[in-house]
Amino acid sequence: MPEGIFCNKKPVETEEELTALLGDTSGTQYYKEMKELDVDSKLLWTTIQNTCKSRIRTWLEICAHCGMCADSCFLYLVNDRDPKQVPAYKIQSTLGEIVKRKGKVDNEFMRMAMETAWAKCTCCNRCGMYCPHGIDMGIMFGYLRGLLYQQGFVPWEMKIGAGMHRVYRAQMDVSEEEFVETFQWMVEEYEDDYVGLTVPVDVENADIMYTVNAREVKHYPEDLAEAAILFHAAGENWTIPSKGWELTSLAMFAGDWAACKMQVESVYEAMERLKPKRMIGTECGHAHRATVVEGPYWAGRKDGRPPVESIHYIEWLAEALREGKLKIDPSKRIKQPVTLQDSCNYVRNHGLRETAREIVSYIVEPGYFRDMSPRKEHNFCCGGGGGFNGIGLFRPQRNKGLITKRDQIIATGAELVLAPCHNCWDAIRDLEEEYEIGIKWSFLKPLVISMLELPDHMKPEE
């Protein structure tokens, strides 16, 4: 069968197509159709010839099969050190074989490659740190996902997510009007407690353009108000764009390269339209990677940078605390054992190793912070990155993958986990639900607000 009704080689382009695909509960028909989907070997090989450049080809050839990447992979560790979970084996047995066979692979092979790409790797790139040749598995698995997506072998939720970006320029069905209205509504809910609280929309030449994760609009709208409170307390000249406000990219997880470009360009267009001094993105790791680290290359920007300086939320928060724009009441600092989850995407893959720890020094009473082992860029993935959190078909594998993070947290004795990243926050929430180890978890915004010394201009009259 060359094409199914739901499982096919065509990207989702319209609301009607999204609605139909969402109506296929858990992708039941989608996965049935996938078992009959033909592989277009000619297209696959042509794509490889046009896009698989010298870097990836060299990495495939120079792998020494030394096994040094094995112990770096949490999925290898939790799966009884199965040799098929060694990162080098996973990429050589999938992408390596596709290249070796010049695209002449069958349906069964592609379904195996799909499971490997989305259920045996989160693209955290911890293995790349320990590879003696510097092979970047994250890039190679991202490339493999792109080949699989083009052929229709992509998890149901990822096909939907990429379609959301194509239709809404957001990972969820949130329109531009709904985003602005939700932000304004949440600010109104808090304006009695914080005098002068507003949300400036489409203000040109502001110092800050703030962008978010659509999950906040849909599921955690209080996060929007919390961002407004902290910007207001810090006296910042800030704004949100009515268009180009979403900086995440499920298209990156899905391997939909064209949608990646569409998504990031919508944010860059907002930067160019409003001309802020800098862009600050919310507490989300993959969003930062998609917009700030990978995005410039998808958009064809030769300098490898967004149109304006773009930083992660923890960078702004550390700066605001350091410069005294935000002041913490010492009596309200955290006085319970607390640890920190280092996000792969902005710690290991973008170098922000110390930033969150600087924030910890302000908000946690000395003696209560307990770092994980390993930590910083050596920390393990939360277990839910790279789209792993959201794929129902691979939920058993994901839940097993959470064991490494579970054990890391237990070893610290922490009761609270700071998780300044959406995927990490979700994975740790699910970890507690699955294994009941008795922890709480939190983004940074609500914690900082709970111990903030409000400036006089924000205090309500008695």
TrEMBL record:
SUPFAM superfamilies: alpha-helical ferredoxin. Keywords: 4Fe-4S, Electron transport, Iron, Iron-sulfur, Metal-binding, Transport. Residues 60-135 form the 4Fe-4S ferredoxin-type domain. It comes from the Bacteria. GO terms for molecular function: 4 iron, 4 sulfur cluster binding; metal ion binding; oxidoreductase activity. PANTHER family: FUMARATE REDUCTASE IRON-SULFUR SUBUNIT, HETERODISULFIDE REDUCTASE. This is Protein DVU_0531. It comes from Desulfamplus magnetovallimortis.
